[in-house]
Amino acid sequence: MSKQRISWKNYFMNIAREVATRSTCDRKHVGAVIVRDKTILSTGYNGSIKGLPHCDDAGCEMVDGHCVRTSHAEANAIVQAAKNGVGINQSEIYVTASPCYDCFKLIANAGIKIIYYKEFYRDQRIIERSKEVGIQLVSLKD
Questions:
Q1: Residue-wise pLDDT tens digits, 5-60
Q2: Of all helices (H) and strands (E), which one includes residue 6?
Q3: Terminus-to-terminus CA distance in the chain, angstroms?
Q4: How far is C-alpha 67 from the chain's CA centre?
Q5: Strands 70-71 and 47-48, how do they pair?
Protein backbone atom coordinates (compact mmCIF):
# COMPACT_ATOMS: atom_id res chain seq x y z
CA MET A 1 0.00 0.00 0.00
CA SER A 2 1.49 3.32 -1.05
CA LYS A 3 1.37 6.33 1.23
CA GLN A 4 -0.60 9.38 0.04
CA ARG A 5 1.81 12.31 -0.39
CA ILE A 6 0.78 15.90 0.25
CA SER A 7 0.43 18.28 -2.66
CA TRP A 8 3.29 20.56 -3.70
CA LYS A 9 1.25 23.58 -2.58
CA ASN A 10 0.78 22.14 0.91
CA TYR A 11 4.41 21.06 1.03
CA PHE A 12 5.70 24.58 0.31
CA MET A 13 3.14 26.20 2.62
CA ASN A 14 4.21 23.83 5.39
CA ILE A 15 7.79 24.99 4.82
CA ALA A 16 6.65 28.63 4.96
CA ARG A 17 5.00 27.89 8.32
CA GLU A 18 8.24 26.41 9.59
CA VAL A 19 10.21 29.42 8.32
CA ALA A 20 7.77 31.65 10.26
CA THR A 21 8.97 30.04 13.50
CA ARG A 22 12.20 32.07 13.07
CA SER A 23 10.26 35.38 13.20
CA THR A 24 11.42 37.71 15.93
CA CYS A 25 8.36 39.96 16.37
CA ASP A 26 5.60 38.48 18.51
CA ARG A 27 2.99 40.71 16.88
CA LYS A 28 2.96 38.44 13.82
CA HIS A 29 5.05 35.44 12.80
CA VAL A 30 5.20 35.27 9.01
CA GLY A 31 7.22 33.02 6.72
CA ALA A 32 7.78 33.21 2.97
CA VAL A 33 9.18 30.70 0.48
CA ILE A 34 9.98 31.60 -3.14
CA VAL A 35 9.76 28.64 -5.52
CA ARG A 36 10.21 27.94 -9.22
CA ASP A 37 9.79 24.56 -10.88
CA LYS A 38 9.23 22.86 -7.50
CA THR A 39 12.61 24.15 -6.28
CA ILE A 40 13.03 26.48 -3.31
CA LEU A 41 14.94 29.60 -4.36
CA SER A 42 14.78 31.64 -1.16
CA THR A 43 13.08 31.95 2.22
CA GLY A 44 12.40 34.84 4.58
CA TYR A 45 10.72 35.66 7.85
CA ASN A 46 9.91 38.93 9.58
CA GLY A 47 12.84 40.18 11.60
CA SER A 48 15.01 43.18 12.36
CA ILE A 49 17.85 44.61 10.34
CA LYS A 50 20.80 42.24 10.42
CA GLY A 51 22.98 43.04 13.43
CA LEU A 52 20.37 45.16 15.23
CA PRO A 53 18.22 44.08 18.20
CA HIS A 54 15.04 42.15 17.49
CA CYS A 55 11.61 42.91 18.91
CA ASP A 56 12.02 39.85 21.13
CA ASP A 57 15.05 41.58 22.71
CA ALA A 58 14.32 45.32 22.52
CA GLY A 59 10.54 45.51 22.11
CA CYS A 60 8.51 46.61 19.13
CA GLU A 61 9.11 49.98 17.50
CA MET A 62 5.58 51.18 16.86
CA VAL A 63 4.52 53.78 14.29
CA ASP A 64 0.82 54.23 13.45
CA GLY A 65 -0.07 50.86 14.99
CA HIS A 66 2.62 48.94 13.08
CA CYS A 67 5.96 47.62 14.24
CA VAL A 68 8.65 49.16 12.02
CA ARG A 69 11.62 47.43 13.65
CA THR A 70 11.14 44.41 11.39
CA SER A 71 11.38 43.83 7.67
CA HIS A 72 8.61 41.63 6.34
CA ALA A 73 9.06 37.99 5.37
CA GLU A 74 8.40 38.58 1.66
CA ALA A 75 10.88 41.47 1.49
CA ASN A 76 13.50 39.40 3.32
CA ALA A 77 13.01 36.47 0.92
CA ILE A 78 13.42 38.77 -2.10
CA VAL A 79 16.50 40.42 -0.56
CA GLN A 80 18.01 37.03 0.32
CA ALA A 81 17.63 35.92 -3.30
CA ALA A 82 19.22 39.16 -4.58
CA LYS A 83 22.06 38.94 -2.06
CA ASN A 84 22.88 35.42 -3.25
CA GLY A 85 22.46 36.12 -6.96
CA VAL A 86 19.35 33.97 -7.32
CA GLY A 87 16.94 35.06 -10.06
CA ILE A 88 13.30 34.92 -8.98
CA ASN A 89 11.57 36.15 -12.14
CA GLN A 90 8.56 33.98 -13.10
CA SER A 91 8.53 32.32 -9.68
CA GLU A 92 5.84 31.75 -7.04
CA ILE A 93 5.80 32.82 -3.41
CA TYR A 94 4.18 30.99 -0.51
CA VAL A 95 3.41 33.20 2.50
CA THR A 96 1.67 32.38 5.74
CA ALA A 97 -0.18 35.72 5.57
CA SER A 98 -1.01 37.70 2.44
CA PRO A 99 1.41 40.54 1.70
CA CYS A 100 0.95 44.13 2.78
CA TYR A 101 0.73 46.61 -0.07
CA ASP A 102 4.44 47.53 0.07
CA CYS A 103 5.49 43.87 -0.06
CA PHE A 104 3.00 43.25 -2.87
CA LYS A 105 4.74 45.98 -4.89
CA LEU A 106 8.12 44.32 -4.29
CA ILE A 107 6.69 40.93 -5.32
CA ALA A 108 5.22 42.41 -8.51
CA ASN A 109 8.42 44.24 -9.45
CA ALA A 110 10.50 41.11 -8.76
CA GLY A 111 8.53 39.23 -11.44
CA ILE A 112 6.82 36.77 -9.10
CA LYS A 113 3.68 35.54 -10.86
CA ILE A 114 1.71 33.63 -8.18
CA ILE A 115 1.16 34.47 -4.52
CA TYR A 116 -0.12 31.61 -2.36
CA TYR A 117 -1.20 32.66 1.11
CA LYS A 118 -2.70 30.93 4.13
CA GLU A 119 -4.39 33.85 5.91
CA PHE A 120 -5.66 37.06 4.32
CA TYR A 121 -4.05 39.93 6.19
CA ARG A 122 -5.55 43.43 6.06
CA ASP A 123 -4.80 45.00 2.70
CA GLN A 124 -7.62 44.73 0.18
CA ARG A 125 -5.67 46.78 -2.41
CA ILE A 126 -3.64 43.72 -3.38
CA ILE A 127 -6.76 42.00 -4.73
CA GLU A 128 -7.43 44.63 -7.41
CA ARG A 129 -3.75 45.30 -8.14
CA SER A 130 -3.01 41.60 -8.64
CA LYS A 131 -5.70 41.47 -11.34
CA GLU A 132 -4.33 44.61 -12.99
CA VAL A 133 -0.75 43.30 -13.20
CA GLY A 134 -1.57 39.64 -13.92
CA ILE A 135 -0.44 38.09 -10.65
CA GLN A 136 -2.47 35.16 -9.39
CA LEU A 137 -3.50 35.58 -5.74
CA VAL A 138 -4.40 32.14 -4.36
CA SER A 139 -5.82 31.39 -0.92
CA LEU A 140 -4.73 28.07 0.57
CA LYS A 141 -6.92 28.53 3.62
CA ASP A 142 -8.02 25.21 5.11
A1: 999 999 999 999 999 999 999 899 999 999 999 999 999 999 999 999 999 999 99
A2: none
A3: 27
A4: 17
A5: antiparallel
88-110 exposure pattern, b = at least 16 Cβ within 10 A, e = fewer? beebbbbbbbbbbeebbebbbeb
Tally of residues, the chain: 142
Q: Which of these is catalytic: 18, 61, 74, 92? A: 74
Q: Give the pTM.
A: 0.94
Give the span between the Cα atoms of 63 and 85, in whole angstroms. 33
Burial zone of 36 (CB within 10 Å; 0-12 exposed, 13-18 middle, 19+ buried): middle
- With beta carbons less than 8 A apart as the criterion, state whether 70 and 47 touch: yes
- Residue-wise pLDDT tens digits, 120-135: 988 899 999 999 999 9
Active site residue 74: yes
